[in-house]
Design goal:
The complex is a heterodimer. By secondary structure, chain A is α+β, with helices and mostly antiparallel strands. Chain A has 3 domains: 137 residues, no CATH class; 235 residues, no CATH class; 215 residues, MetI-like (MetI-like fold), CATH 1.10.3720. In chain A, the strands form 5 sheets. Chain A has a 6-stranded mixed sheet. In chain A, strand 15 and strand 16 form a beta hairpin. The N and C termini of chain A lie far apart (76 Å). Chain B has 4 domains: 50 residues; 200 residues, MetI-like (MetI-like fold, Orthogonal Bundle), CATH 1.10.3720.10; 126 residues, no CATH class; 95 residues, no CATH class. Chain B is built from 19 helices and 12 strands. Chain B has a 4-stranded antiparallel sheet. Chain B has a two-stranded antiparallel sheet with strand order 2-3. In chain B, strand 7 and strand 8 form a beta hairpin. In chain B, helix 5 packs across helix 15, helix 6 packs across helix 15 and helix 16 runs antiparallel to helix 17. Chain B is extended, with a radius of gyration of 36 Å. The chains are: A alpha+beta, B alpha+beta. Chains A and B meet through helix 2, helix 14, helix 15, helix 19 and helix 20 of A and helix 3, helix 5, helix 6, strand 2 and helix 17 of B.
Chain lengths: 685, 564
């Protein structure tokens, strides 16, 4: 028998002819199943395997690094506490109901759209219901089961030094609390032992407590650095340059004394009192000595309280753990005189607790005519590494607690639209077109919505009072600019597209010039032009608000791009259509309006969705001409002193939100297009 | 027909009902309306500017600018005029646009290929990359690059360096393993045909390497290479262990079934060899000590890269190189003819590269062969003296210009050097520039990746299969079948993305990079000449757009499908 393997021993010239049946190979061991999938998709070649290993390492590193930071270190209070600013800007609270109504209408229309063009599967509905249940169920659960981070404050009169600066603890600290809450103060004795535990302090800590933590951490770092330098100098992997540098460093370093030796921490007994902020009356007092003693007070009413603490005889310092004292944010609100409530009017300082947005307008307590130091987010910062349960109770629960009613309302409105649309179809649609009724309604709603949006947000003469455009901002402004831009540029864009394809040379030249000019310059220059030149055209235009000038710029810009999209649609129509229409005796206008344009618009609908998405992203440029849109709002928030240095958190929120918004629009439009419903939609329009 | 039925028609009526006449009248009316509208807008703008004494003109460009631009070139100071400031802005914009276009093309093509990878993980990661970047605004991304990435870099005093300074010991045994491995693979595959013996040799090699490395790991946890002979007991223990393992393997080989015997034998012998080499110190335990000097410094104040300086001898070398290039072109054309006439596939690309490399090397030899001047004039203690070159260099009297003048090499590669609070050599790149460049590059690369993916997918699969059936290699398939057809689809949208990148570079204003928009808005704010300023920016971008359109249209024509 001659097999192919032996062929190399044969003379080259002789052809080998194999008349035998080919050998029956056993089936490959891995053809189906997860292992086969892994081999085929991840390890098919050595290069593939290498890429997979590199990729897995990268992904795992990135995910663990990010989660470790997001849970253990990030401070999401800037997001939780500014949700209104992000979504509505500084829009007048009196007109907020209009936006709410509008958003519900949009949710209704989305539900109706699903009824008309797609179907909600039972799985999707279940997920939505579950989402609502979770947003309502989780916050109380977390609040009941999980502890919030502890608050640490330092007491005493000895200055605490770390590096160049020294901080002396404050004798009194003002805070706000609800009636019925319990404040417990005790010695934080678990930290008095050694530097390692002190440097790992985590939770809310006032500046003096944090100074203790810094001093301990600094000492540990210094001794670690000395060890490292000694180890490096013992080896011989250093250049002479490096060696000289390290020896110089080593000479400068010296280990400070342990904190417990320096400050006599928690040695003496500590006097602690809790006072009512407004009256100064004492609610509870205790002398803390040893680990068991603690002061626990249940507070009688909402409002200000004062934590007064002092070390007996002024000897040493104490580190106290004060549960129930949380940082506050000060804001100014304007109240009309006749408004019910505290009876005060004008500009009132309002204080809100960062952990759960509990707010009070009571006057802040003073001592010797000056405001008492209060537990602000600047003084009492969230420090150290946190546990997952603290992350849940401090950030997730308040966030869900803030958004749950909104989520519920949105889901209910969406379901109302969906089931309402289905009911409408059952009653009104003819049997041969089972979704016609809802389809018509939804098409009309989508056309009317942008107009309604403008009217609702801006106002309408005497019916709805006009709002102040300078206070528009946040996501509302972003959506508004994009929607107005795309809708208002539509007529101009269609005209330009028809003009560019026109057989009239001058009209065609003008349209081409306009389109190419606008497409050749950046949006930012168009915005600048609108900002600077529009007021010069006419004295009445000079008083046009900034927002409307930006809108004019965006409309002029968007029209050129829209014209190119529509032109693409017009070009895609076979010339036979126009010739046939002509042959039937239609004139030019009729051919355009009744034959070519409707078909062209049908073809460009997906492109229009794409243009809306890119306009939605591009409107962030209005930040440069001074409007506070969604992304500018992020920048505004991180420049407030309370949220200084939280840029990372804010930008991650922005990126996640932008991504979720645009990606969901894009994927829904892709799905509608793929399902063929897009054509149905176009037919209705 | 209608003319026949109504022969006696009013001539004036005939003229005004003529379609062509109507069209022209309509167009004239259109022109009049447009011109009237524009002149109305223009006159009202000019009048209101006149009332503020700010009539648009270009005379103000000669006025003193009076503002500083960070990282401006030498030819600009705050005493320069507005026109010079504008030129600085234009230069800065062009710097970002040109390097951005090059980098984004490379990154985009790479990500596009990753999007089509057969590896699920690579595909998914690149898909996430593309979707996240496409669906978030560039402005937010730029802010992220600048405020979060660039400003979080380490301080100037303790910068990131690459490579980090220090001594890197490279154990020579790794190099020897590599050489042995290649040698064995080649010789075994070519010479030793007997399968069991082949298995034996390869297995023994692996076993020896594993034994050696294992011993090193076992005996010396300390990474310092000098201590290799230090720990006596452990050494003997490891050696004994290897002897025992070898003996066990030998016994196993004796009893092992036929097909495993040679393998086990190989393992045993390899173990033994590895152990012996290790124990008697024959295994090369010397290491190459490489002193690493940082070439790149990265800190919050920017990036510093090595500098390449032209010297006086560059011209000579370049002359040789250009001869090489000319020869390469001739070779390319000549072999192109030969390939066309004879059909033999000459490797003409290699010949051309070889020609350039040979002439470059020749030129280098020639340029460096000439002796440097023996004595050079240098300034010492305020007066010019003649010193031997080496002595002057040792005393540190040579300035950078002197080095450029007297060096024997065609160009100097100068590493960045930090003295005190600044760098005395090296190319410094500001963090604003880097953030803008990275932001634009990464953002646009996501769009280009999608375009490349779509372009490659647009080539019918049959084309690939047919080219394989014809016996073309992978490279040939890619070069002659896939790319020409994919490029036809890729180039027009790619040109659009290039336009977008150049226009998006105007977002530099958000992170205070002194591009044309930022500089011109500063000029506008100072001089009040807003109309002129905006016009200048628009003209700049229109010219850039036009240039990019012309180039991409040229490429498009080159790759267009030639049909009859």
């Amino acid at each position: 028998m001659t097999t192919l393997n032996d062929s190399r021993n044969l003379p080259q010239a002789e052809p080998v002819v194999n008349f035998d049946e080919p050998p029956v190979k056993p089936p490959p061991l891995l053809a189906v199943g997860p292992l086969a999938w892994v081999q085929k998709n991840l390890f098919s070649t050595p290069l593939d395997a290498l890429l997979t290993i590199v990729g897995v390492t990268l992904v795992i590193g990135a995910i663990t690094g990010f989660l470790g930071w997001a849970i253990g270190q990030a401070n999401w209070l800037a997001i939780n506490f500014n949700l209104r600013l992000f979504f509505l800007g500084r829009f007048e609270p009196e007109a907020e109901w209009r936006v709410t109504l509008l958003v519900l209408l949009v949710a209704f229309t989305i539900g109706l759209s699903f009824a008309a063009w797609a179907r909600l599967t039972r799985g999707v509905m279940l997920v939505l219901v579950l989402l609502v249940a979770l947003t309502f169920g989780l916050p109380p659960l977390f609040r009941a089961a999980l502890p919030v981070p502890a608050t640490y404050v330092a007491a005493g009169e000895v200055g605490i030094a770390s590096g160049a600066d020294t901080i002396t603890p404050q004798p009194q600290l003002a805070f706000i609390a609800r009636a019925g809450e319990t404040v417990t103060v005790r010695l934080a004795d678990s930290f008095s032992g050694d530097d390692a535990s002190l440097s790992g302090l985590s939770g809310f800590a006032d500046d003096a407590a944090n100074q203790l933590r810094n001093a301990a951490a600094r000492r540990l770092e210094t001794s670690a650095r000395i060890d490292e330098i000694t180890r490096l100098l013992a080896g011989d992997l250093l250049t002479s340059n490096q060696r000289a540098q390290l020896e110089e460093d080593l000479a400068e370093l010296s280990v400070p004394d342990a904190i417990t030796d320096t400050y006599a921490l928690n040695d003496a007994s500590v006097q602690v009192r809790i006072l009512r902020g407004t009256t100064g009356e004492e609610i509870g007092a205790a002398t803390l000595e040893g680990s068991t003693a603690s002061l626990s007070v249940t507070l009688p009413e909402d409002g200000w309280y004062i934590l007064d603490k002092g070390v007996d005889g002024g000897a040493g310092n104490a580190l106290l753990r004060a549960d129930g004292v949380f940082p506050l944010l000060e804001r100014t609100v304007t109240r009309a005189a006749d408004e019910a409530g505290t009876g005060r009017s004008g500009s009132i300082a309002q204080y809100a607790r960062l952990t759960d947005s509990f707010t009070t307008e009571e006057v802040r307590p003073t001592a010797d005519g000056r405001n008492l130091p209060m537990a602000t987010i600047i003084d009492t910062q969230l420090r150290g590494t946190r546990s997952f349960s603290e992350y849940l109770s401090l950030f997730v629960a308040p966030f869900l607690g803030q958004v749950n009613t909104a989520v519920l309302a949105l889901v209910v409105a969406m379901f109302a639209g969906y089931f309402g649309g289905q009911a409408l179809d059952r009653m009104r649609s003819p049997a041969n077109a089972p979704r016609r009724a809802s389809g018509r309604l939804v098409a009309w709603l989508w056309i009317v919505l942008p107009v309604l949006m403008f009217v609702f947000v801006y106002g309408l003469g005497s019916i709805l009072p006009l709002t102040d455009t300078r206070r528009w901002g946040g996501l509302m402004l972003t959506i508004m600019l994009a929607a107005v831009g795309i809708i208002a540029s539509f007529p101009l864009g269609v005209l330009l597209a028809l003009g560019r394809r026109s057989s009239l040379p001058i009209v065609s030249l003008f349209s081409t010039l306009y389109i190419e000019f606008v497409r050749g310059v950046p949006l930012i220059t168009v915005l600048f032009m609108a900002q600077l030149l529009v007021p010069l055209v006419n004295p009445t235009l000079a008083e046009l608000p900034n927002v409307f000038r930006a809108m004019i710029g965006i409309i002029l810009f968007s029209a050129a791009y829209l014209a190119e999209n529509v032109r693409g649609g017009l070009q895609s129509i076979p010339p036979g259509q126009e010739e046939a229409a002509r042959a039937l005796g239609l004139n030019g206008l009729q051919v355009t309006l009744q034959i070519t344009l409707p078909q062209a618009l049908r073809a460009v609908l997906p492109a229009l969705v794409g243009q809306f998405i890119s306009l939605f992203k591009d409107t962030s440029l209005v930040a440069i001409v001074g409007l506070l849109d969604f992304s500018a709002m992020g920048e505004l928030i991180v420049t407030q002193t309370e949220f200084l240095g939280l840029r990372r958190e804010v930008y991650i929120f922005l990126i996640v939100f932008y991504f979720a918004f645009t990606y969901s629009i894009a994927s829904v439009s892709r799905r509608i297009e793929a399902s063929g419903a897009g054509k149905a939609l176009a037919r209705k329009i | 027909m209608s003319a026949k039925s109504r022969p006696s028609r009013n001539p004036i009526l005939a003229i005004i009902s003529n379609v062509r006449v109507l069209q022209w009248v309509g167009q004239i009316v259109f022109v009049i309306i447009v011109v009237a509208l524009f002149s109305l807008i223009w006159t009202s703008i000019v009048t209101s500017l006149n009332t503020k004494n700010l009539a648009p003109n270009f005379d103000f460009l000669q006025n003193r600018a009076g503002f500083d631009i960070s990282n401006a070139p030498d030819w600009y100071s705050s005493n320069s005029d507005y026109w010079t400031a504008f030129q600085v802005g234009v230069t800065n914009s062009l710097r970002v646009i040109v390097s951005g276009l090059v980098l984004t093309t490379i990154l985009g093509i790479l990500m596009g290929i990753f999007l089509l990878s057969s590896n699920w993980l690579v595909r998914t990661i690149s898909r996430v990359y593309v979707e996240v970047l496409r669906n978030t605004p560039l402005l937010v991304q730029l802010f992220t690059w600048y405020f979060i990435v660039m400003l979080a870099l380490p301080s100037f005093q303790q910068p990131l360096t690459f490579p980090s300074e220090g001594v890197l010991p490279i154990p020579l045994r790794f190099a020897i393993y590599l050489v042995l491995f290649i040698f064995l693979r080649r010789s075994v595959d070519h010479l030793v045909i007997n399968a069991p013996r082949r298995v034996f040799i390869i297995t023994a090699f692996y076993a020896a390497v594993i034994a050696l490395e294992g011993a090193f790991r076992l005996a010396f946890t300390q990474p310092t290479w000098a201590a290799y002979y230090g720990s006596g007991n452990l050494l003997e223990f490891a050696f004994l262990l290897y002897i025992v393992i070898s003996a066990v393997l030998l016994a196993a080989a004796w009893f092992a079934p036929q097909e495993l015997r040679w393998r086990a034998l190989g393992l045993a012998v390899g173990q033994l060899i590895g152990g012996l080499l290790f124990y008697f110190g024959i295994a090369p335990n010397a290491a190459l000590r490489v002193e690493l000097v940082p070439a790149v410094y990265i800190s919050v104040r920017g990036f510093v890269f090595p500098e390449i300086l032209a010297t006086a001898r560059l011209a000579e070398w370049l002359a040789f190189v250009s001869v090489g290039v000319a020869l390469a072109i001739i070779l390319w054309i000549y072999f192109g003819r030969l390939i066309e006439t004879t059909g033999i596939q000459y490797q003409r690309g290699w010949y051309c590269v070889l020609a350039i490399v040979i002439f470059a090397a020749l030129g280098w030899v020639f340029a460096t062969a000439q002796p440097p001047p023996t004595v050079v004039p240098v300034e010492q203690d305020g007066q010019i003296v003649l010193l031997p070159l080496d002595e002057a260099r040792e005393q540190g009297l040579l300035t950078r210009e002197d080095e450029q003048l007297y060096s024997t090499q065609p160009f100097l590669f100068v590493l960045p050097e930090k003295r005190g609070l600044r760098f005395v050599s090296g190319t410094e790149i500001a963090p604003e520039y880097m953030a803008l460049l990275l932001g634009l590059t990464v953002y646009t690369s996501a769009f280009i990746a999608e375009i490349v993916r779509a372009g490659i997918l647009a080539v019918p699969r049959g084309q690939l299969e047919a080219s394989r059936a014809l016996g073309l290699t992978t490279v040939q398939t890619l070069r002659m079948i896939i790319l020409p057809q994919a490029l036809r689809v890729i180039i027009p949208p790619l040109g659009n993305q290039y336009l977008n990148l150049s226009k998006n570079s105007s977002l530099a204003i958000a992170i205070a990079y002194a591009d044309v928009v930022l500089v011109t808005t500063t000029i506008m704010n100072q001089s009040g000449q807003s109309v002129t300023g905006i016009t200048m920016i628009m003209i700049f971008y229109l010219i850039i757009s036009l240039l990019i359109s012309v180039v991409t249209n040229g490429f498009n024509r080159r790759f267009k499908l030639v049909t009859r």
